[in-house]
């Protein structure tokens, strides 16, 4: 076996600012895929990790879920960040058999049958927000005025949260997932950043108490009253379940819709193709998801000594799975830097793979395709009305501002 490869290009994966400069990021990732597909990264304030950038290696690690575990480090956060994060144990922190049992609590809510019923609500909300675009008078910040609200309303209504609380949940989510970005972060110290998490936990504690006293027909009630082997979930697991549904359930989708619209503006030939052939929407949806890749990376920890591409990985060492890189892998995608609404096959890994495949993937696909199905027939012209801005992150994110001007019917 060969020794560790250290390539400075891999440091980009440990810099939140890297994701605001996509050209530079992809230049670095292209180099890594070619010259150092498994590269060692020691970049404080993060603990060292191995960066895995090839599609085939990301899949191999995802498949080997006993060898590479989610616990204890599923995401890349600084060593001293958010002390309250140690009290979070969501689905992305869990491994089987616990993961399988806890995941099953919400599985039926995202089943094909449940989504068919939810489809009416999704279509109604898509129409509402396209109407809001038209009412805006031909110019808006698409992210802050449209994209963040549409999937938020879908997932909050699924949970059964009162509409009056939606703005608060949006703010808390942005603070939690946007903690690396100065526009969204509540403070700079770990303690200040933890306040958002504590507020969200306090809210869900009250919700749990209400749903246990008076069960209702919503996902929040299903979580609050869930039992595994006859026992209710612990307080930590209950709060964490709400957290992952409420945050990942809308932030990733809003990023994808915003990034998809940007891609269509930047590629007018693809916009024309999709408007001319609405039947391309399923393929276009997958291409938008690949192109944006809202979840940038996940982490795994080796449960025993192993290797990737002949590079030794010791027990206890962490690997970072770069979905952004895997979704531009030249060995898997023809012309990977071309946005192509006709792309097929499209073996992207934006939803992960294996036992941790995204629980809400089908809902996200439905929301994305429904929104663009509603928008494109009514759109006459569209262009940028300023510079798009991306969020600083190492985990989840996309555009935070997309100023556009347009005309609609």
TrEMBL record:
One of its GO terms (molecular function) is cholest-4-en-3-one 26-monooxygenase activity. Pfam families: p450. CDD domains: CYP142-like (cd11033). Its cofactor is heme. GO terms for biological process: cholesterol catabolic process. Keywords: Heme, Iron, Metal-binding, Monooxygenase, Oxidoreductase. The keyword Metal-binding applies. PANTHER family: BIOTIN BIOSYNTHESIS CYTOCHROME P450, P450, PUTATIVE (EUROFUNG)-RELATED. Belongs to the cytochrome P450 family. This is Cytochrome P450. It comes from Nocardia bovistercoris.
